[in-house]
């Protein structure tokens, strides 16, 4: 079975980006259920995906499957997207902080193939 890390950069406030996020989450959930080792990480404007009303149900489902690896704390921080507290309240772990952006190679270092959305 494969090891895949879905990294979502999509801005859910843009319709085409919202659809990409929904499909990526659906694919990640389906692959997990088929036995693949899957992680989902929200980065860049993608830190807003767990907060959007049209993706929240899928994010909750992904969290129940145990595949959500968190959101970028640097991108969520006040100087950037400014949703740190909202992301925490949504139950996601923040990776990195306002002064430290974690590199997505952290998934590659663990043997995951990256799926960038």
How would you portray this structure in words?
The chain has 117 residues and is an alpha/beta fold. The protein has one domain: 3-Layer(aba) Sandwich (Hypothetical Protein Ychn, Chain: A). Strands 4-3-2-1-5 form a five-stranded parallel sheet. Helix 1 runs parallel beside helix 2. The longest helix has 19 residues. The radius of gyration is 13 Å and the shape is globular.
In short:
This protein has one domain: Hypothetical Protein Ychn, Chain: A.
Features of this protein?
117 residues; alpha/beta; Hypothetical Protein Ychn, Chain: A; 5-stranded parallel sheet; 5 helices; 37% helix
Total domain units: 1
CATH superfamily: DsrEFH-like
What is the CATH domain class?
Alpha Beta
CATH fold-level label = Hypothetical Protein Ychn, Chain: A
Counting H and I runs of at least 4 residues, what is the number of helices? 5
Q: What's the gyration radius in Å?
A: 13 Å
Please render the helix and strand layout as text.
Layout: E1 3-8, H1 15-33, E2 37-42, H2 56-64, E3 68-72, H3 73-76, H4 84-89, E4 94-95, H5 105-109, E5 113-116
Parallel strand pairs: 1-2, 1-5, 2-3, 3-4
